[in-house]
Amino acid sequence: MKNATMIVDGKPAESDTRRDAVNPYTGEVWATFPEATHEDVDRAVNAARRAFQGGWSSSSGAERARLMHALADRLESEADAMARMESTDNGKVIRETRNQMGFAARNLRFFAGYADKLYGRTIPLDNPGLFDFTRRRPHGVAALITAWNSPIALLANKLPPALAAGNTVVVKPSEHASVTTCEFGRMAIDAGLPPGVVNVVTGGPEVGDALVGHPGIDKISFTGGTPTGARIAESAGRRLVPVTLELGGKSPNIVFDDADLDRAVVGAVAGIFAAAGQTCIAGSRLLVQRSVYPEVVDAITKRAAAIRLGDPLDASTEMGPVANRPQFERIVKLIEKGKQEGATLLTGGGPATGPDLADGLFIAPTVFGEVSPGMRIASEEVFGPVLSVIPFDGEEEAVEIANGVEYGLAAAVWSRDIERVHRVVDRLEAGSVWVNTYRTNAAQAPFGGIKSSGYGRERGEEALAEYTFVQNVMVDYSGAARDPFSIKT
Ligand code: NAD
């Protein structure tokens, strides 16, 4: 049994109460972690404040980069163990969690590269006696709150740009998957980051709420559900704290009849069945042009039915269990809703059981055909392996259906017609658009949503803007006397 600890002020931190971490494959408690009190949150924020003022924000970018590379080295050297822990905690298959650890280290290195390149601008003004320049300054203490589906990968979108820019952080992972984030906090100490630069507090929504509402927080970055994001934005709004929100999605994967259909089917599988559909960017709506609809639906149904379910720690498993019981129940309920609403169930349709599935929270890969845009399974985020296939006739209708939901996180277009691709991309309401691919990402490429999927950007150079404010400095070197009662331009 692993007993994870929080990290506060460079040291492991305990709490009187502990929570269980349940393995969704076996149903067993495999670890415990502390439930932070308000005092713990307070101590973490104060430690982060001291570290911010005590040297981190004024350290050289080169020094911050060195320590971030050391943390990346550490993460790489423990990547296998971390991947195993994460797969045990949330049921995500090891072939993906291994990759995610590598990607997290890559993000650390990418943003380490910016730490000594946070340039401002010199700005020529109308008045030649004034010299103007800008600087990028860190906000201060950032609260980083993540969801359970990919704790380290989500943290790796936030923490690297925050540290590179000179902020210190208090991290709160989800109560459904906290252990690897505690380990990450321990690695930050091992890598030599000064005490208080990276703090980790664990626990449920009350802990998140205490962190968000703490007067010592200067910036919030949140990944999670849209209702929680809205609550956090409200709380932050009362104190005018800047917020980055990465929320839910109902992303359309649009297949036109001129697409390479084999690749489109693989993209559709990647979109909805990878990670058992528990990704914000899940391509949960497959829009297929009617002329190729039978062919595409047939191929995706066959592939879905053949997906290898099993132990997430087995490298050959394609889909593991869903991460926790509330999520499992929610998915089952939405599948039932799809049946009641009259969508055609093509494969799956509920929990999956079998000799290799232990007591796991497995949902059979589910495909609904002839879904109409008004159905709940076509508009609500399921966050599970449930695909809604929606037929369309032409470009206009495809765009209308694609944009007809409250979310705007991601979308994909499958077509060989370059003119059509640009026409459609131009009109899609989504922060990320893929063309002839799905669920690919890169440290350099900005990511984030619009509409109910949130605001702000992670990854790419854009992420640095989330963790800095621009300070403009105007210097009068004219030596001239001025009229004190009229603004000088
Ligand atoms: P959630 O909103 O329930 O919880 C997310 C985090 O917020 C957890 O750490 C939780 O403890 C904390 N929290 C809950 N209530 C809080 C409050 N009042 N104040 C502060 N913190 C609070 O989401 P979840 O169920 O963990 O994750 C699933 C959701 O996350 C899905 O909607 C999914 O789309 C979204 N998600 C988005 C992205 C993205 O990048 N856009 C990535 C992954 C997941």
From TrEMBL:
Active-site residues from the entry: E246
One Pfam assignment: Aldedh
SUPFAM superfamilies: ALDH-like
UniProt xrefs under InterPro entries: Ald_DH/histidinol_DH, Ald_DH_C, Ald_DH_CS_CYS, Ald_DH_CS_GLU, Ald_DH_N, Aldehyde_DH_dom
Domain Aldehyde dehydrogenase, chain residue ranges per copy: 15-473
Alphabetically ordered keywords of this record: Oxidoreductase
Family: Belongs to the aldehyde dehydrogenase family.
Identification of the protein by name: Aldehyde dehydrogenase
Organism annotation: Streptomyces marispadix
